[in-house]
Structure formats: C-alpha cells, structure tokens
Write a structure and sequence with these properties.
Distance between the termini: 67 Å
Largest sheet: 6 strands, antiparallel
Number of helices: 7
CATH superfamily of the largest domain: q2cbj1_9rhob like domain
Order of helices and strands: HHEHEHHEEEEEEEHH
Strand content: 15-25%
CATH architecture of the largest domain: Sandwich
Number of strands: 9
Radius of gyration: 21 Å
Number of domains: 2
Length: 266
Amino acid sequence: MISSQAGISVTYHMRTLRRDVLAKGARIMLDDKPFNYLDEKAIERLKINTEPYEWGYIPDAIPNIYLDKVLADAPVIPTRGSYPIKSYFGLPHLKYGPEFKKVIDDLLSEKFRRIVEKKFNMDLSKNPPCIVMMGNTTGHYNEGYAHNDSKHKIVTVLVGFTREWPYERGRLRILRSSDRSDYEFEFAPEFGAMLMFKVSDKSWHGFLPQKGPRMSLQLCYCDSQAYVRSEYFRHGLSALVKSVPALDWILSRLPKNIWGIIPSKR
C-alpha cells in the first residue's frame, strides 16, 4: 500500500512532468510557426566565420519583395544616432506600423533566438534582447567609430532597412583592429541584409562617415534585464536631448569617450 505522503509526491511529480511536456510542446509549436517576413531558409544558410572573430552575413534575411510593404510602416527617425523601440518615464521611443512590428516580432521570437543559438553553439535563453535603430548619418567624423560593443552584450544582430545605399563610404565593416581602414569585410546597410556576431574584445566594427538616410536595426542579447532597461533609458534620454536644437548641436560635437557620463548616441 502506498502511503499518503508517497501518493502526494507521485502526484506532484506527475503534474510537474505534465507541465514540462506541455511547455516543451508549446515551444515546438512556436518553433514550427513560420516567420512573418524573415527568410528562415536563408538565415539557416548563414555561415559563421571565425576570423577576426565569430561573425556571419547574409544579404537577404528579409526578401526584397517585402521592401515597400515593410518600409511603408517603418519608424520615422528624425536625426542621427540610435533610438530605442521602447523607453521609460515618458522618454521618446520609436513608433511604427503593424507590418514593421511583424519584423520586430520575428526578431524577438524564440524561433529566431534558437537559430542564433545554433549558429554560435550557445544558450541565450537567459539573455534578454534589446533593440535600437538608427535612421540617418550626417557624415560627421565621429559617426561609425570603431568599437567592439559593451561587455554586457553577448551576441549582436544588425539588420539593414535602407532602401538603397549607393555610397562607397558608410558601409559597415568587420574590423581586424580598432582602425576603421583595417577591415575583413564590408556591406551596405540595405534592406534585408543581416550581420550577426559574438561579442568579444576582438569584435571591432564600424563604418566611414557618410551623410545620408541610413536605416538599420541593432538587436543585442544582453547579460541582464537591468542592462536592457539602462540601454532603453539612455537612448530615450539621448533622443529627448536631440529634440532640442541647441543641445543637439552640442551633442553632435562631443567626443565618443564622454558617453559613459551622458547619454550615448549608439
């Protein structure tokens, strides 16, 4: 005869097992659901290079046939610098229509995260995402400066949304060092182009200054929700400052190494 305590234990474990099975089934269903706009097969073909660090690129993560439909609902980004897709305390953040939201939903999905995990052979389930966008560059000397991303970022994914980029300058470069002329690869930030890389002390990237409408999205998997909140807050605060012409003029001329003190433009 089974004691009442043993019976309770068996019942508890059965319920736990049932819950885990249902959760796994739900994850499988989510993984099976097709993307709205991302091309799963194209992204699956993305090859990870190992020099000068771990990175991969594909030109058509979003098929070009969706260009007009998606860009018609894209956010209007008024000036240079990066803007958050969400913010806090009433600070500015980007507004966009339902078709562009579908792209955001794709990128924030567990299905996409699992693809990225597979590419870099790592678990990102405990690394919350953060998304910011840029829409314009002024050609100022400090735009596109070489950087390797914050130590709080684990993986960075960049997606181009520029209708066309006819310039030689302003193409994003995979750098071998902090010198923007020392590059392994470069690509135009045009619609559908996707770059992903694992953040490290070697993950230098940047571009040469070029004035023009340059729309791109940055998705980062971060080490904590606190860091994600801080990123949305500082980019929102930066957006507020840039909405005041006099402050915006000062902001555009400050050196990059001051961003640890005041809101960053990236």
